[in-house]
Design brief:
492 residues, binds S-adenosylmethionine, SET_dom, SET domain-containing protein, SET_SmydA-8, SET_dom_sf, alpha+beta, globular, 20 helices
Length: 492
């Protein structure tokens, strides 16, 4: 088991607070730590769920008569159950105020596990930055007031539970928690309901190009790995936001949710490391790209140096965003909106990229639903090129081992395989060429699996790993059969 102390050192600076650096050279894919959460629970805006497994609830705990449970679970945390049993809360309290569940779990640590409570209290909550903001008021209405008005903690003779402490605890979760993705049904995945506080992993500083990967399993164990080699003394970095957001979206997300302005290399580079995720096409020359230069507060072309009016860029971006939001998940409609906005946006612009990801997903669904012979070659070509485009961006923004690259590689190589088979069937390529394409797909699938193997089997990516392994076996079978019909290769 990876020893945190052997691999990491905690340092501190005025700008970052505490952060982690490598205590020794770490190889790509090396496990840095395995950590259990000090507390897990539904996110504060979650719908009512079973307090034991977080699936849909259909009954209540027979002992405390307050906690929602599902058909399979009969108990939940003992301290929590005792608290609800003895707190004198109205029988419907948790159904009316489900948002209090996780803050209550944190508050109960004070008496049930003081060491864990103190560890939690050492985390960053940004209470002063949050005071009087929208999120503060939301927590005040949905968590603080219901809990304090219920007088549940007073009845338990605990006067230390104040509005300030509850707000601080909400801050700990918003600033530090990680999503727990294993062992959940589809609805929970989409709503990302369950989160955990991991005091060690949460020490990593943010960077928009990270060098670590986190995998959390269904038992809430968090495993942290390097994605690229990390030298002794280098920072261990985690991306708190989404790699495929443009700079404005990433910075806004980080400012509003994590209370800092990111100044990483990617954020400071108007071209976003050459990926142009935020760029628009120049109106003054052919092929020119305009990026935002924050130091000059200008949108400038990298070819003819024309400056684009900010109102023009804002209109172009907001039109595209509006269309993207309203666009139905339909192949023709997605293609129409992509073509429309490709006239003004760089092909890698994050708005187009999201539409293209949806399109690739729709083509994938279509391929899964029809026998391979019925899927038009054009559609396969389109999926192949969409995946290729995505991979070239991901290789820059998520270097090394990456969940998204693993998924894109899988889709790319399945498309390569389907296309090669189709071209062979229509006699566009020879058996020898087919074999060459299949062996490229074999290499790609192997690389995809090598990245997805980090994912817990109960997550969607873990399930994709199983599928990719199965596909790899089929592909190798197919290669054997093709080898039989390629006499030159048999001789070799
Ligand atoms: C999850 S905590 C990380 C641990 C924290 N530094 C501590 O001392 O507890 C996230 C907070 O760390 C700080 N932080 C992390 N990465 C940063 C970065 N790249 N630039 C500035 N502040 C950062 C911010 O205050 C952010 O809200």
């Amino acid at each position: 088991m990876a020893r945190f102390e052997e691999n990491c050192e905690i340092l501190e600076s005025n700008e970052l607070g505490r952060y982690l650096v490598a205590r020794r050279d770490l190889a790509r894919g090396q496990q840095i730590l395995v950590e259990q959460p000090i507390v897990i629970g539904p996110y504060w805006d979650s719908k009512i769920r079973c307090l034991n497994c977080f699936r849909s609830s259909c009954t209540i705990c027979r002992k405390c008569k307050r906690a929602p449970l599902c058909f399979d679970c009969t108990t939940h945390q003992e301290t929590e159950c005792d608290f609800y049993l003895n707190s004198g809360l109205n029988i419907n309290f948790l159904f009316d105020h489900f948002n209090v569940v996780t803050p209550v779990r944190c508050l109960l640590l004070a008496s049930s596990n003081r060491a864990k409570f103190d560890e939690m209290m050492s985390m960053e909550a940004h209470t002063n930055e949050r005071r009087d903001t929208d999120i503060w008021h939301a927590h005040e209405t949905k968590v603080v007031r219901p809990l304090l008005d219920s007088k549940a903690f007073e009845k338990m003779n605990d006067p230390s539970v104040t509005s300030e402490l509850i707000q601080q605890i909400c801050g700990f979760f918003d600033v530090n928690s990680f999503e727990i993705r294993g062992n959940m049904d589809d609805v929970q995945q989409v709503e990302s309901l369950v989160r955990g506080l991991y005091t060690k992993a949460a020490l990593m500083a943010h960077n928009c190009v990270s060098n670590t990967l986190i995998s959390v399993d269904g038992q809430a164990n968090l495993r942290l790995y390097t994605t690229v080699p990390v030298k002794k003394g280098e920072m261990l970095l985690y991306n708190y936001t989404r790699s495929l957001f443009g700079t404005v979206e990433r910075r806004t997300h980080l400012k509003l949710g994590k209370y800092f302005v990111c100044t990483c290399r990617r954020c400071e580079d108007p071209t976003e490391l050459g990926t142009h995720l935020s760029s628009v096409k120049c109106t003054g020359c052919d092929g020119g790209l305009c990026s935002y230069y924050a130091t000059e507060d200008k949108w400038l072309c990298n070819t003819c140096t024309k400056e684009l009016e900010k109102t023009y860029v804002n209109n172009v971006l907001s039109d595209a965003r509006k269309d993207a939001m309203q666009c139905a998940n339909d192949i023709h409609e997605l293609e129409r909106i992509i073509t429309k906005h490709s006239k003004t946006l760089h092909p890698n612009n994050s708005i187009l990229l999201e539409l293209k990801q949806t399109l690739a997903g729709e083509i994938r669904n279509r391929c899964l639903m029809s026998p391979p012979s019925k899927v038009p070659e054009q559609l396969l070509e389109r999926k192949f090129h969409l995946c290729q485009e995505m991979l070239s961006i991901l290789r820059v923004l998520e270097p090394g081992i990456s969940r998204l690259t693993g998924i894109a590689l899988y889709e790319y190589n399945v498309a390569l395989w389907d296309l090669a088979r189709k071209k062979f069937e229509t006699k566009v390529i020879s058996a020898k060429e087919l074999l060459e394409e299949l062996s490229k797909a074999e290499g790609g699938l192997k690389e995809s699996i090598s990245m997805l193997l980090f994912e817990h089997p109960s997550t969607p990516e873990g399930q994709l790993t199983k599928r990719a392994m199965h596909d790899l076996k089929d592909l190798r079978e197919e290669m054997k059969q093709v080898k039989v019909i390629v006499p030159e290769i048999q001789k070799e």
